[in-house]
Every structure is written in C-alpha cells, then in structure tokens.
Amino acid sequence: MNKINKISKILTGALMFALTLCLAKAQPTEPQGTITGRAWLEMGGTGLAEITGSERFPDGFDVEVYLPYFEWNPSPEGDIFAPADNAYGDNYAAQIMGYFHPPASGDYTFWLSADDNADLWLSTDSDPANKHVIAREAGWSNARNWDSVGGGSVVEDKNSSSFSATEWPGGNTITLQAGEAYYIEAIVKEGGGGDNLAVAVEDPNGEIDPTLPIPGEYLSSIQPSGPVNIVTQPMGATVNALDPLTLSVEVAGTPPYAYQWKKDGADIEGATASSYAIDRVDNTHAGSYTAVVTGAEGSATSDAAVVAVNSDSEAPEVVSATGSESFALARVTFSEPIDPVTGGNKDNYSLSGGVNVTGATVGAAPNDHIVTLTTSSQKEGTMLTITVNNVTDLFGNTIAADASMEFSTFIWQEGYVLHKFWQGTPNNIAGLIDDPRFPNSPDFITLEPFWEYGPDGSNESGSNYGNQLVGWFVPPSDGEYIFFTSSDDPSDLFLSTDDDPANKLLIAREAGWSNARDWVGTGGGASNIDDKRSDFFADSEWPTFDISLEGGERYYLESLHTEGGGGDSVGATVIASNDADPASGDAPTLTGSLIGTYLDPNGASVNIIQQPADADVDEGTAATLSIVAEGTSAYGNTVNLQWQQAAAGSDDFTDIPGATGDSYETGVLVIGDSGLQFRVQLSVPTLSATSDVATLSVVKDVTPPRIASVTANSLNGLIVKFNEGIDAATGAVAGNFSLSDGVSISSASAAGQSVLLKTGSLTSDATYTLTVGGVKDLYGNAVPAGTSKSFVVSVVTYTDIILADEPIAFYRFEETGGMVAENFGTLGSDADGLWMSGVGPDDSIEWEVSNEEGPNPGEGFLGFGEDNLAASFNGDLDLLWIETQGQWLSNLDSFTLEYWVKPTNREGNGWNRVGIVGQNDAVEYGFINGTTIQIWTPGGGALNTTYEFPDDEWHHIATIADGSQIHNYFDGELINSAGSATSDYGAADFTVRIGGGGVYDGSGNHFEGGLDEVAIFDRAIPAERVKEHFTAGREGGSKAAPEVDPTISITSADDGSITIEFEGVLQSADTVNGAYSEVAGAASPFTVTADSPQKFYRSSQ
C-alpha cells in the first residue's frame, strides 16, 4: 500500500470561509499545474453513498495531496506515462477536485476510469454549485481503461459523449470556452482488491492526449493562486515525558507545497509534511519549532512554537509476568518503557523453581515496556516468581530492589487453536516471517474452535495482513494421516515430528489461492491441487509421503498465511489414510479432542453477578432462566456459557445442546417436570466455574383456554386462536362452535393454539359472534359453555401478513399457466419472475410455469388455502429456474430472505451447490450439500446450517443478515448465527435467480422439490416477525396492530353484587399486591355476587 501521511485538518471558521470563497469566487485564472486530491480512510462498502452520506464528508478527510495530473495515487516521480499503482489500499474513498482550463473553445469529451464505483462531475462555470454528473463507473475497471470495463460497468457510461444518464444541460455535447475555469470533480469509493481513479479529455484541436490523464498544465487546485500564506500557526505546548505531540500548519496560496520543519533553527530530517508528529516526547524534544513552507509563488516561515517537557522522575514497576507456549520464554511487563541496556541484561532477572534466565531482550517501541526472557525449560502449570533488580527507565530511574511478581506457566487447553494476526504485512510468507513483530507481537490474537480463520468458513477478514495458527494435533489412534490445506492467498502448513516446534517440517502448501474449505480444488494463481495435500506434495520436508503418528501424542502443528486483497481465509483438515478425501465445503476435522494449545492462565477470572434462580412455573408453559456474569483472560473478556440439566434429585448434569446464551427457555413443561434442575458451566480460556443450581416447580394448570382472536382467512373460513395449545380432538369437533346469524360450521381442524373452521358464506365487514364450549386445553380444562367473542369479517391471508412488512419481491406461485411468476413486492412488475429452462442465461428459453401442491390445511398449515400452489422443480431433469430480472441483492447493508421449502431426493445425485434463491458472487444461497443450507456473501462472510428435516416435508426458512451477523431461522426458531460485520454484503453482475440457473455459480445449481412464498427484503426484518410469519402459515395470523390498553370499570347493584366491565383479560388476587391469576371463563360484563369472598380485580392485556 502506498503510504501517504494522514494530514490532520483543523479548519477554523475563518479558514472554512476562505475555502468557500476559494471555490465560489477566487478560482485560479491560470492553470497551477496541479489539482487537489483527498481521501477518507477506513470506510467500508463500494457504493458512493458510503462517502457522500457520511458525516465525515466533505471536510473530515484523512489525506490531502496535490496531484500533478488527473489521477489518484500517481507515479511517485510524477511521470504521466507511468500508470498509477493499482494498490493504494482498501475500504477508502478518494476525491479529485479543482478547475479545468480549456485550451480552446469548442466541444470536449471526457472519459472516466475507476475501481470501484465512481462519478465525474463538471460545472457549467467555476461554481461547484452548478456541477453536473457527466460520466459514471458503475462497477470497476483497470487503471486507464477508458474504452473497456472490468465488471459491473457500462462502457458507454464512462464517456461523457455517450453517458445515458448525463445531467449536462447540453446533453452529451459539452461545449467549453477558452480562458474560463470550470470546476471539475471525480469521486471513487473503493472496497477491496485493486483500486484507481483517473480522468482523460479530448479537446477540439487535439492538443491534449486523450489516452492519458489530463495533464497538470490544464488544471488548478481548489486553492486560490498567490504567494504562500500561513493561515494557522503551530501552537507551542508543555508536554509530559512519553506523551505524543503534533505540530501543524495550515497554508494558502498557489500549490503544490513543500514543508520543512526546524528545531532551534536546524532542519529535522524527514519532517516534510504539514504536520510534524512525535510519538513519545523525551527531554531532547524541548525547544523552538518552526515550519518553512514553499509554494509555487515563494515561501514563508511560521511563528515559533516553543515546546517544554515535564521530565519523568518515577521508577518503573513490574506490572505482570507470564510464560509462553514454548516453555522456554517468559515475558515481563513494566509500567513504562525500559532502558534497553539495563532491561536487556539477563543478570538483572532471576526465576524461582530452578529455572535459569539465559537471555533478555527489550521490545522495540512501542513495546519497549516488555522484556522477553529466554529460560531453561519450564514445567507446565507451575507457579514461578520473577525477581528484578537494577533495571532503569529511559530517564535513569531505577526499579525498587528485589521487585517481584508471581505467575503461572502455560497450561494445556483442549479444543482450541491459537490464532495470531498482523496487519500491514507483505503478501508472501517470507515477508511475514521477516516482519519484526513476528512471532511474539501480533496485533491481536483469538482462540478458534476449528483449525481455520475466518471463523465458520467465512472468507473476508481483511486485506494486507498475515496470520498464524498454532496448536498441537492429537491423533486418536496409531496410524497414517493425510493433511490438507486451503487458503486465500498463500499459506504453508507445518507438522513437527513431536511436540517441539523446533522440529516442525513443511508438509503442504497453497501457492496461489482457493476458496474457504476448498480442500480438493483450487481457485487461481500458482495454486496446485497436489501441493495442498501432504501425501502428494513434491516439496514436502517430511521424510516420507506417509505421515505415521502415535495415538494420544501431541504433535506441534502450524499454519502460516498472508493476504493481499479480495477474499481471504486459511484452514487445514486431516483424515486417516484409509478415509475418503474430504469434500470441499466440509468443516475442518481438526477440532475438539484432536487439537489443543498451551495458553496463559495469568489474570483469568470469572465472576457470577446474578445466579440462576428457582422458579414456580404453570403447567403447559415454558420457563426462562437467566444468568449474569463477567470474566476476563489473556484472550479477551468473553465468557462462554453452557446450560446443563439434571433430573429431580440427581447430581448427573448434562449439557443442553445449543443452550449457550445468558438465558435459556425450556420447552413446554408438564407436572412430571417438577424438580428439574438447571445450572451453567462458565468458562474463559484456562478457567471455568459452575453456577448455583436452579430448581423448577411445575404448578398444575386449572385455567380453561380463552379465545384470543377470531380472524377470517376467506369468506368461508375462520381461524380461531386461543391463548394456549388446544386438545386436537375437542378442537376438531365442529359442534363445539356456533356462529350467529344462522351461519353454519361444517368442519373444524386444530393445530397448536388455533382451530380452522369451514363455514357457510360470511359477509365482508359484517359483525358476527362466535360461541364456543367444550374445547379443552392440553390439560383437560374446557372452555365454559356459552363463551363467546364478537368479530368483524376482514379477510387476512398469509399474503397480507408478508406484504405488511413490505418485501421488495414476493412470489406466491399461484399461476396455473403462462411463463411469469408475478412479483407482489414493492418492485412490482420490474421484478416479475420469468420461468426458464436451461443450464443458465446463455442457453435457456422461457418455459411454462411448473406447479405442485403447496402448504395447506390438510398438511397442518391452517394459514393457507386448500388450493394453495407452489413452484415445482425437477433438478437436472427439466433444468427449470426463475429469472427475477435484477441485481436486487447488490450493495445491501442488510437483507432478509424467506421462503417455504420442500426438498426431495437429497440422497440422489447432484445435491451439491443446489440453489434456492440468490445472486451469484453477491449472495449465494441454497443447499451446499444434501444436509447443509449455506449462505455466502463476499462482504459479510458465510453461514452453514444443518438441515435435518426429512425429504418431502414443508418447512419455513428465513435468513436475516443485519450488518453484524447472518442468522438462520427454521420454522420460526433461531438455529445459528455467524459471519462478520459489514456495511456492504457485496455486488455482482449476475441477477437474482430462484431454483437454479446459477445461484452459487454463473449457471446450473438446479433445485429439486417445491418452493413457495419466496420473499426478498432489502433490510433486516425483526426476528419476532419471522416467528409471526411462520405462525401465520402454521396457525393463521393477523397483521400487526397497535396494542389496546386494557380498561376496567365497576357498577354496584342494590343486592350488593358488583358488575365488572372490562377490555382485556380479567385477573383476580386475594390482596391488592398479591399474585394475580386469570379469572376462568370471565367475559365482560362479569358479575360478582355479594356473598363472594373478598377479591381484588384488574384487567391485563
């Protein structure tokens, strides 16, 4: 990456006013030979809205430079014939702005070339307020590719004479006058990979070479011309020793500018930017500082800034000490930077336990407060004491005599691999090893449960970095083993002949790149499939191609990996030599008891703030238990939680699968569950703790069910929803229900909390009363005879419920003919689905719709009509797929995909990379194999979820990508989450397709089975709506409506009775602050007789 110093901009009101005048009125009348360039660093995404919509734009830029011609990141020598380096960086925005001075009057054509998205603006005069977009790069192109594109762009739009969306008042004809200055601006937003921005022009007389960026002789910056003038002077300061200091000047006048900072009149070597920064001040930095600034029209010297330094008089202290995974190193951390001579003298340190100190090295700044000691062999998990004498800080202050610190050596931790990460390394293994920070000073470390990074098979963890996976392989038995590696970009895999890292040998290599977990394939570059496996690797350092290991022994294992730009990952997996090769996409087998590492236990702690509590729970309901805890370790502050359960009176606690959050909701409880015990195992790396036990008491349910709602799903059907689960037998008795106005009820069917009634004809918007009696809950409590509820017939369908959340695309697949799947979403007919037959767009033809029976009441889905249809696909036999005609999943910061699915024949051939709905290279989604649904994005990582349902069953699936993680929901319940934070999940030239035609790839990926109610949202819908959508299909539902506040009022009668009128649920208690419970069968109005025992009543929602 080209390193350009960040320039801190402190813009006073006066300077802002001056810049405004500069842009609006004081433009240069003659070319200056330069143009202004600015950059905003550490900004994700590729869309221009990322920068133009940012609060940092336009004045919060990180970099300002003056360019010799109209190209970002130009040749360091200013050679216009040398194309710009295509690797300034990732995740930034750049803007080039100033004035164009036409050499002649006439018509001009401008060209734009950029990577990634970019716009070119030109004003009709010198005023930026009159600028108009005249060309656009909608994807990316290589540097100076004026007449071609890389991806996602339209070549005509890069040319002002053919740009279809030009805003220029004269259309595609741009006429300019000689002697005038025209404001011009280009802006680009870079995501990852290559990057560039340049503008060329053709003038009417052919004076300017249109194959090159516009030369500086026709350009001016946004600065007005004139002698250099220092607008903001450097400020003096009194600074504490070791604190940072930055001195800055702001200037005006004709650029470009050259700076030279001086101290006490002498040049400071290398201090040639508008700011001079000192990372850590010491006594030698006290003095008088000035800046000499030279512009195109002379030079000026700043006022003197006097810097005073408060010296350090405090002695250093030992803050902490720790061992290392090699058991031959110890690290001592001091309270401040240490003198390298006294700190590097091994004789100033001693260790207890017979361990000898054989060497000492003070770290390089800013880590010169850490001393690494080489020692004789340490024992695992042993307490040692380090004693320090005669060590001084940088100011000569000596540590107290016999300063000491106790610490533990490292301990074994099964099931984890240690991951170390270094930002800003070259993209080659040798460059990583040569980095002075390697191996002991990573930027950060993580613990991973699989031998891979990024986690969960994701493939975007950054750019321009190196990382290392360190651990030990523990073979389950004696035998021969084969190791596989996969990475993007290069990686080396090492295995030691024993547990000693010094004996490691190279056994496999990725020389180019492969996709994450692509064990038996390659991606590109110099990648060689044989080199990626230990038994075929020609340059293996292992004595034989067969790696024979002893079961139960620990063998040191290591991956080294570097990344340039684009996708990135590293991982390894292992098989026994007689096992089948792994499939690409399989999770690494290097996990659990097969791996482990040695970790630092010092400072680890777990503190339980709130214990799980005992609870009384009503029969037929679920209980929610919770815990609040905090912890820390050398590897972060995350506390891992695992809920456990034991039977009443038992001490045999077992893990509850998937119960790893700070709360746990049980299933529906019955009387026999009373006495169930729950506790939590808490852990941070190297330390664990156990919570108190919480015991549940289940109280018998004696309350009958209550009618919660009555909703029409057609003019011949009602869905009656109760407040709890209903006994299927009594719920299916039509005679337990009756309707007013003589409307008949011909049948009833129950599911969950709902009953579907088939009725005679109902009148829309009319009011009816439903009377219920004899329907029981799951515990035998019957609805009292005569219980009734009035309702208004307003038909609510599953479609209504989905459309209430405003999907951009929603396909119901109810068509019985034709070639179109109608889109009911907000995009309208622009996103209508076209039924196609063929492998992909290049060889497909439009085809008749293909239907099958969708989810319906006969299969227990009460929210659908009996004649509900679904889209039917037959895999590679008919090659059917649906084209949605748009790149609807490009450049989204969040999204939701939702559908009903009934796969078939997953044990058959072809269930590999089977598409459901997605956009190749942007959001790829479907069955990665017969048992795994995978969603993959280039910007936010991937998520694999096991699909355990049988074939030929309908199930509701929803995936929410919220910008932080990706979440999968099956039948309304969260199953798992993974992925990385992003503001742009990715983009691609491909369109969104359903059922095949290219979802994981450019073509193919054909689905076999049924799909229904496919919904696409361009945002993350709330998780509770996913649950409501599933329930609407399963039991029927209603549109979201505002809650109605409960009300209650009373009227006294002469006989002493009281009549209570209420909205909501009537509850009673023996005392005003007592435990309230629902009054069984209560309907408004409710009468309490004079001889009734004293009660307190309230109404609840």
Number of domain modules: 8
What spatial form do the alpha-carbon principal axes imply?
globular
Instruction: Give the averaged pLDDT, no decimals.
Output: 91
Quaternary arrangement of the chains shown?
A: single chain
DSSP strand tally: 80
| Helix-and-strand structural type | mainly beta
Uncertain regions: pLDDT < 50 for 5+ in a row? 1-25, 1039-1044
- CATH architecture of the largest domain, by name, is Sandwich
Rounded to an integer in angstroms, the radius of gyration calculated over CA atoms is: 36 Å
Strand content: 35-45%
Measured as a percent range, the helix fraction is under 10%
Which fold name is given in CATH as the topology of the largest domain? Answer: Jelly Rolls
Measure the end-to-end span.
61 Å
Blueprint (SSEs and pairs):
Blueprint: H1 13-24, E1 35-40, H2 49-52, E2 63-67, E3 92-100, E4 106-115, E5 118-123, E6 131-137, E7 174-176, E8 182-190, E9 196-202, E10 219-220, E11 229-232, E12 237-240, E13 245-248, E14 250-252, E15 258-263, E16 266-267, E17 275-278, E18 287-295, E19 298-301, E20 305-310, E21 318-322, E22 329-334, H3 340-343, E23 349-351, E24 357-362, E25 370-375, E26 383-388, E27 403-408, E28 411-414, E29 417-423, H4 429-434, E30 444-448, E31 452-453, E32 465-473, E33 479-488, E34 491-496, E35 504-510, E36 547-549, E37 555-563, E38 569-576, E39 595-599, E40 605-610, E41 615-618, E42 624-626, E43 628-632, E44 640-646, E45 654-655, E46 663-665, E47 677-684, E48 687-690, E49 694-699, E50 707-714, E51 717-722, H5 728-731, E52 737-739, E53 745-751, E54 754-759, E55 767-772, E56 787-792, H6 798-803, E57 809-811, E58 820-821, E59 833-837, E60 845-846, E61 851-853, E62 869-874, E63 880-883, E64 895-903, E65 912-915, E66 917-918, E67 924-929, E68 932-937, E69 941-946, E70 955-961, E71 966-970, E72 973-978, E73 993-994, E74 1008-1017, ...
Parallel strand pairs: 12-20, 41-49
Antiparallel strand pairs: 1-2, 1-3, 3-8, 3-10, 4-7, 4-9, 5-6, 5-8, 11-14, 13-17, 15-16, 15-18, 18-19, 18-20, 21-22, 22-25, 23-26, 24-25, 26-27, 28-39, 29-30, 29-32, 31-38, 32-37, 32-39, 33-36, 33-38, 34-35, 34-37, 40-43, 42-46, 44-45, 44-47, 47-48, 47-49, 50-51, 51-54, 52-55, 53-54, 55-56, ...
